[in-house]
Amino acid sequence: MQNTATGLRPLTVVRQDVSLGAGRDLEFGLELLARARNGGIGPTLRLYRPAPTVAFGQRDTRLPGFDAAARACRENGFEPLVRRAGGRAAAYHQGTLVVDHIEPDADAVAGSKARFGYFGELFAAALRSVGVQAAVGEIPGEYCPGEFSVHGTDPLDGSRRVKLVGTAQRVVSGGWLFSSVIVVEDSAPIRKVLTDSYAALGLDWDPATAGAANDLVPGLDVAAVEQALLETYAGHAALETASFSSLGA
């Protein structure tokens, strides 16, 4: 149903102020997807700052160095988890913003690839609005590489590009969950844990590609990026706000 005043579809925005814990945060997104597919909730945008986590892909678990990589995560203060989506290991902490967009959709599979491009451009636009030279596309040597990653270019060194947003998607019959992580602050711990875990896995990558938005725009923080994201979203949907308690976590 569209909002008759704006012509835009409604989207309920829910801010989760406190992490539920690394594992519970990840699982709760899947629970919301299950509710959406069964008609329990409508289109929902969940925003939160996560506990320090390294989310490994399924392929990572089959590598002989996986146990050592998990130990390296714990030694760095990050909880190792395995996500159901594809890709390689990605790290995040409270200096990042996780964006879970959940929608019921009778034909969820049909638009699955197009969603990556759509959301990549949306996140890049939000970052550009706060001064980041952001664009969509994989950069050489990036961690958890993806065709629709969002990267930023250093305004003082055009040859330096860092990955800022990674995305993953879960599609089921009757709905989809598009989850994105925006790295905004404090990139050093992320770079360190990725360096150690990728070394254990035996995967090649360039640590210089791990960065944060405020490495490129000093002073930028998560609150400013969240506000910019919502302002960008407002051009695509009629935003409504609900309390996190309404989701019954």
From TrEMBL:
Residues 39-241 form the BPL/LPL catalytic domain. SUPFAM superfamilies: Class II aaRS and biotin synthetases. PROSITE patterns: BPL_LPL_CATALYTIC (PS51733). This is Biotin/lipoate A/B protein ligase family protein. Pfam families: LplA-B_cat. The keyword Ligase applies. One of its GO terms (molecular function) is ligase activity. It comes from Arthrobacter sedimenti. Keywords: Ligase. InterPro entries: aa-tRNA-synth_II/BPL/LPL (IPR045864), BPL_LPL_catalytic (IPR004143).
